[in-house]
């Protein structure tokens, strides 16, 4: 009997860690629009912001809390009583409020950033969870810079916050230094020591491994993953929401995992966030880049025109595009099949000899300019058909 894949949860942090991307600044109405789009996709928890950071941030989080009913509305806080109180005041009107205090646990964060001992950090974590639990059962706690922290201290912090009733323990690769097998082992070790512990995996992309680390965390027992749309976030960004979703959906059987979010809204949500953030994904970005369903090499184009499955592992429709959004790009590396398809789309069905002539003309022209525009294509087609004279 086949084992049903385990459905993972999401802590979607586009509105908080994503907004920490240098150069990004959402107005409250923009944050609300993004929050509603994320909630409508089916994400479990929305990390909406850091209310104590400014009055405007407090009001933005409170606005989301007053409007969004189909997801947990979470605010983060330092492991300080006043921060936690402010976070709660921002989200308490939500249908599903949540708080996530955090504290740096590595030697660098303890000693250099905060000037605290292990014992002091441990007590601050315990008090933070205990205080937040007076307000709500939906209290998560993040161990900032977990992957550069002594193993025994990670377990000490986990033990005290689990005793205080924490909902999720977030293990953070804050600086993106972990390798996938290292992060997977960390999650597995914590899960083995505390089987009742619900773990969330928070990974950054400094070495380009955020999604790989997140997947290894999930494979090794994490129930939830922290992600940000378009890979936004501090420095090189966070694990990209759309990449984690489609990796799990496309390789569900191999991973033993699945998602319950609406993948057909990926493109519209990505574009909404790109618009408000002012940061377009790079063209070759997985899933949502302009070239994600574009083909430039002749051999690839010939295969895709015969059957898209030859070079595509997912369909444009699966992320909210249409088959018409699949682009066959005519460039200097393209083949006759691509040129014939483009000509057909423009209303020209060329015979073999005409296509050969058009192909040679296209190659010559691409030696003088980077791309062929529609007027170029029409000129080539009509010349090959003898409708115009070459001047």
For the biggest β-sheet, the strand order reads 2-3-4-5-6-7-8-9
Order of helices and strands: EEHEHEHEHHEHEHEHEHHEHEHEHHH
Helix content: 40-55%
Give the overall shape, derived from the CA principal axes: elongated
**End-to-end separation:** 71 Å
Mean pLDDT: 95
How many helical stretches? 15
Alpha-carbon Rg, integer: 25 Å
How much of the sequence lies in strands comes to 5-15%
Work out the number of β strands: 12
Structural class, by secondary structure, is alpha/beta
Task: List low-pLDDT spans.
Answer: none
Largest sheet: 8 strands, parallel, barrel
Assembly status: single chain
Outline the fold blueprint.
Elements: E1 6-7, E2 9-12, H1 28-41, E3 45-49, H2 55-67, E4 72-78, H3 81-91, E5 97-104, H4 107-114, H5 118-132, E6 141-144, H6 151-163, E7 169-173, H7 180-193, E8 199-203, H8 210-219, E9 224-227, H9 241-250, H10 252-255, E10 257-258, H11 266-277, E11 294-295, H12 298-306, E12 327-328, H13 336-345, H14 352-365, H15 374-384
Parallel strand pairs: 1-10, 2-3, 2-9, 3-4, 4-5, 5-6, 6-7, 7-8, 8-9, 11-12
Helix pairs in contact: 1-2, 1-11, 2-3, 3-5, 5-6, 7-8, 12-13, 14-15
Pfam families: HCS_D2, HMGL-like
Protein name: 2-isopropylmalate synthase
Keywords: Amino-acid biosynthesis, Branched-chain amino acid biosynthesis, Leucine biosynthesis, Manganese, Transferase
């Amino acid at each position: 009997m086949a084992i049903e894949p385990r459905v993972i949860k999401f802590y979607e942090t586009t509105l908080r860690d994503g907004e920490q991307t240098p150069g990004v600044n959402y107005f409250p109405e923009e944050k609300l629009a993004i929050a509603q789009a994320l909630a409508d996709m089916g994400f479990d928890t929305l990390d909406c912001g850091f209310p104590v950071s400014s009055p405007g941030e407090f009001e933005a989080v409170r606005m989301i809390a007053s409007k969004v009913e189909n997801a947990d509305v979470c605010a983060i806080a330092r492991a300080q009583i006043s921060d936690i109180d402010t976070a709660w005041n921002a989200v308490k009107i939500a249908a599903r409020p949540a708080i996530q205090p955090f504290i740096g646990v590595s030697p660098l964060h303890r000693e250099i950033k905060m000037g605290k001992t292990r014992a002091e950090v441990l007590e601050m974590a315990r008090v933070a969870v205990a205080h937040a639990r007076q307000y709500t059962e939906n209290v998560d706690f993040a161990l900032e810079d977990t992957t550069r922290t002594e193993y025994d201290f990670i377990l000490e912090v986990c033990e005290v916050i689990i005793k205080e009733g924490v909902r999720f323990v977030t293990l953070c690769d804050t600086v993106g230094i972990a390798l996938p097998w290292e992060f997977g082992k960390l999650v597995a070790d914590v899960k083995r020591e505390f089987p009742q512990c619900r773990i969330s995996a928070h990974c950054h992309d400094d070495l380009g491994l955020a999604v790989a680390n997140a997947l290894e965390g999930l494979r090794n027992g994490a129930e939830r993953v922290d992600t940000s749309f378009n890979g936004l976030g501090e420095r090189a960004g966070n694990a990209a929401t759309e990449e984690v979703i489609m990796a799990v959906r496309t390789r569900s059987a191999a991973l033993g995992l699945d998602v319950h979010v609406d993948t057909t809204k990926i493109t519209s949500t990505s574009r909404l966030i790109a618009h408000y953030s002012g940061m377009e994904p790079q063209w070759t970005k997985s899933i949502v880049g302009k070239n994600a369903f574009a083909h430039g090499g002749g051999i690839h184009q010939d295969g895709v025109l015969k059957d898209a499955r030859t070079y595509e592992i997912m369909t444009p429709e699966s992320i909210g595009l249409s088959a018409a959004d699949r682009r066959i790009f005519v460039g200097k590396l393209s083949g006759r099949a691509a040129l014939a398809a483009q000509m057909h789309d423009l209303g020209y069905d060329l015979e073999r000899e005409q296509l050969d002539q058009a192909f040679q003309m296209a190659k010559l022209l691409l030696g003088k300019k980077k791309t062929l525009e529609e007027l170029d294509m029409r000129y080539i087609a009509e010349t090959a058909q003898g409708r115009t004279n070459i001047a």
